[in-house]
């Protein structure tokens, strides 16, 4: 077994996995030439071996993806037996549904990874579990919730007085899972403070180009009433409680900041954000620091050391243990069921 990490991510998560497995990282060189082309040199024999590529996704997402593709193809042409991508945060996972005249980019990326030579993927908390169906090879979608629940129990004083909050109805299933495991109450936030993307005009009702049409004028279809979003409301009593908002990704934090303000107005005296992937893009650290949020807890699936220096409210939970165990079990041909014990389909 050989574990490789790409230079942009040759950092804590890769090293932690190597230490837990008792192996040294494989020798490879990945760099960009002067014209920005990606080049990969594998510095040791990989013929007939199981190769695990650990690739967390930094801010330069597209460069990281290209490096992963080129490295996988280099290993494929070097006759590696199996090439397993360890991608804790799967990029473009939010683009997994057709929107207007867009495309399902997540499906495109899945096809590119298969074409490059990957034979298996280990990831964590996909944005939609159905994304696994985009791949024509095995995908192990691990869960970070055991680590985050352990953090709640050990690091949040008086967590028994907390209530789990879903930021939107779509996040209710995840929040319900946390609430049932912690034996806590559940609150759901409903409504939006701004116009959603799905309600923005997309030109579908624009007048067509002028042309003469003879004969049939078209069918009279039933007219669908437009949705009207109510202002943000909270279903559930958060007064005098610790509010714990759970989600899978923390990226642009404006929605979380707005939710925290509403919860403060409803009487919550402490507000925590628990999420698997801390992308924390743009002005996220500053907005968190200036907001009513007391703490943002994320795992180390995505590097965020710089953001932590900018905002002391950001805390990190290490998930290298479960990734290392998944690597070990796959290499030894052992069952992965132990890593999914007590996890239901909806979790």
TrEMBL record:
**GO molecular function terms listed in the Swiss-Prot or TrEMBL record:** ATP binding; magnesium ion binding; ribose phosphate diphosphokinase activity
The record's annotation in InterPro entries points to: Pribosyltran_N, PRTase-like, PRTase_dom, Rib-P_diPkinase
List GO BP terms, alphabetically: 5-phosphoribose 1-diphosphate biosynthetic process; purine nucleotide biosynthetic process
Which Gene Ontology CC terms are recorded? cytoplasm; ribose phosphate diphosphokinase complex
Q: Which domain of life is it from?
A: Eukaryota
Record-annotated Ribose-phosphate pyrophosphokinase N-terminal domain positions? 20-117
| Pfam family for this entry, one | Pribosyltran_N
Q: Which NCBIfam families match?
A: ribP_PPkin
Spell out the protein name for this chain: Phosphoribosyl pyrophosphate synthase-associated protein 1-like
Q: Which organism is it from?
A: Mastacembelus armatus (zig-zag eel)
